[in-house]
Amino acid sequence: MNDTAQYLTDQVRPHHASLLAAFQGESDAAAVALKAALDVRYGPHPRQTFDFFQSEAPWRGTLAYFHAGYWQARDKSQFRFLAPDFLIYGIDVAFINYPLCPDVDLPTLVEAARASLPALLKCAAGRGRGGTHVVAAGHSAGAHLSVELALTDWSVRGLPASPVAAVAALSGVYDLEPLVRTPLNDKLGLDTATARALSPIHRLRGGLPPALFVVGGDETPAFRQQNARMHEAWRRAGNASETLVVDGTDHFTLLRALPAPDGLARRIADLLG
């Protein structure tokens, strides 16, 4: 199976269109029912906004969630339906939009996404959430961004220490080099050197927060390998890591594995201790 099949054509399933439509409908309902603060700005680009959902349970932390779309598609509004799965555990949720390629290049996109975290902390503090217990989380391209937040040197961005207490990465791409050989690169514009530089699997170090790397059991071998390699690399660098393959799920049905009482959301909440 070539890279285009592994990362694109064989990841698209016939039921995804109806599933994503259901996600949108549930997300629209969640935004109304849970009285979310929508489109909070965190930067000058029109897509530098986030939605903030506040838990009514005793506060434990904040989940910063980055959506899927290969850094070139989709929107936070499609994934608001995930909020209730975390709110019940006392975890506030921010769904974060970011600029897309090719409107910006990928290094600019990553830097723009980083700007969300200080703004999110300020928003949370204004609501009486005084701590910096952030779970950097995301799905697919968003999983890549969640790891980039954990790798960021926040001391040069005005924060005394990293606010990222844990990472929850679902179906991520952490080695971008295979994407150079696919049509996805038409908008990403990567060469081999740039793809490697933007691959967090090559930049791990000790002292990173605990992580959970999750993938669907029915995803392509490339996605399952990306997940396994990242988990092992995180551990080899001296950090705590768990991995989970959710049998019977693919790239998007994996998100249906989050609900309580025994879903992924509880596993992610447990990362906060």
Can you lay out the helices and strands and say which pair or pack?
Blueprint: H1 3-7, H2 16-33, E1 37-41, E2 49-53, E3 61-66, H3 83-87, E4 91-96, H4 106-114, H5 116-126, E5 134-139, H6 141-151, E6 164-170, H7 185-188, H8 192-197, E7 211-216, H9 221-236, E8 241-246, H10 264-270
Parallel strand pairs: 3-4, 3-5, 5-6, 6-7, 7-8
Antiparallel strand pairs: 1-2, 2-4
Describe the main β-sheet briefly.
8 strands, mixed
Pairing-aware structural class of the strands and helices? alpha/beta
CATH-derived topology of one domain: Rossmann fold
Low-confidence stretches: none
CATH class type of one domain: Alpha Beta
Word description of this protein:
There is one protein chain. With 273 residues, the protein is of the alpha/beta class. The protein is built from 10 helices and 8 strands. The protein has a domain at 35-205: Alpha/Beta hydrolase fold, catalytic domain (Rossmann fold), CATH 3.40.50. The protein has an 8-stranded mixed sheet with strand order 1-2-4-3-5-6-7-8, sandwiched between helices. The mean pLDDT is 96.
Core attributes:
273 residues, alpha/beta, Rossmann fold, eight-stranded mixed beta sheet, 8 strands
